[in-house]
Design brief:
The chain has 319 residues and is an alpha/beta fold. The protein contains ten helices and 13 strands. The C terminus is likely disordered. It has two domains: 76 residues, Arc Repressor Mutant, subunit A, CATH 1.10.10.10; 215 residues, 3-Layer(aba) Sandwich (D-Maltodextrin-Binding Protein, domain 2). The strands form two sheets. Strands 3, 4, 5, 6, 7, 8, 9, 10, 11, 12 and 13 form an eleven-stranded mixed β-sheet that branches. A two-stranded antiparallel ribbon has the order 1-2.
């Protein structure tokens, strides 16, 4: 295809051979093989060179499109040219906010944002090269990360209580964890076995809270509608989670204190990944990282901050 297109552009077999750095005989053989496969003549030889036949004129735009498609296919996997592929848990969560900030700081870097279900799928995709990085909570209870997968903690996100206007705590400027005991906290999106399920299991065990994950998960809109209309229910939401609801809902975001539960977001990546934008992302996140285990905060004991997560040593948490 490329030889045919170059001849069509130059009008000469000899000039095409020079441009392609091959012999004129090789050019002739390639054209002959292509004509034999297609069953038509593509060029007519003249004293001045080579002219496209009617069939050659019809074939040329398709040949050029095939060459462009081949270039796009190669560029899609060529390091430094393809987008940086990053996994987040949700499009409205803190990790998405971090990526939006990165994009504003580096608008010239192309991003592909994916949403995988659990940490196991994310680690598999990192090791296979399907994605370049993932935002997760590590080391969650379960198998330790493989040796070729690195992690670094990049954000400790405070939890807030979200209530409707009729809830008993709706008017509070803040609420302590102890004051949440006895209140029903509804979180239908918790997936058993996920890292966020492990986080809330330890939160419940550490402070005697009641978290209900019953009922189907119809998405954030249905959750917000129910919280707004049900005085007996509240839910947890990350401080950096961005949701929009009707003004008539009257929802309240109440800070949780003494201690403040924080969700530990980490970045995971393959140690041998050479994508240059990955290094830029890591540098950006290092510049925006929050202090780990600040006084007055709580995380599970397994939420460790080192570069690579250690094997699980599950505990009841720390304040």
């Amino acid at each position: 295809m490329r030889t045919f297109s170059v001849i069509a552009e130059t009008g000469q077999f000899q000039k095409a051979a020079v441009d392609l750095s091959v012999s004129q005989q090789a050019v002739s053989k390639r054209v002959a093989a292509l004509e034999r496969d297609l069953g038509v003549r593509l060029f007519t030889r003249t004293p001045h060179g080579a002219e496209l036949t009617i069939d050659g004129q019809a074939f040329l735009p398709h040949a050029r499109e095939l060459l462009r498609a081949a270039e796009r296919a190669a560029a899609s996997v060529r390091i430094g040219h393809r987008p940086l592929r990053v996994d987040v848990i949700s499009s409205r969560g803190a990790a998405s906010g971090l990526l939006r900030g990165f994009h504003r700081a580096h608008p010239g870097i192309d991003l592909d944002v994916l949403m995988l279900l659990d940490i196991g799928a994310a680690v598999t995709a990192i090791r296979s090269g399907a994605i370049d990085a993932s935002f997760r909570a590590v080391a969650a209870p379960g198998p330790p990360l493989p040796e070729d997968v690195a992690s670094v903690r990049v954000l400790d996100e405070p939890l807030q209580l979200l209530t409707g206007p009729g809830h008993a705590l709706a008017g509070a400027g803040s609420v302590t964890v102890a004051e949440l005991a006895g209140h029903r906290i509804w979180m239908p999106g918790i997936v058993p076995g996920s890292e966020w399920a492990a986080y809330y299991d330890d939160l419940v065990a550490g402070f005697g809270l009641t978290i209900e994950a019953t009922g189907p998960n119809f998405g954030s809109d249905a959750l917000l509608d129910t919280i707004a209309d049900t005085p007996a229910l509240a839910t947890f939401m990350g401080e950096h989670t961005r949701l929009i609801w009707p003004a008539g809902h009257g929802l309240r975001r109440v800070p949780v204190t003494d201690p403040t539960p924080v969700y530990p977001h980490s970045l995971l990546w393959h140690r041998d990944n050479p994508h240059p934008a990955l290094a830029t992302l890591r540098t950006y996140l290092a510049s925006t990282a929050t202090p780990h285990d600040a006084p007055g905060t709580w995380t599970p004991n397994w939420a460790v901050p080192p570069e690579r997560a250690a094997p699980d040593h599950r505990g009841s948490g720390r304040g």
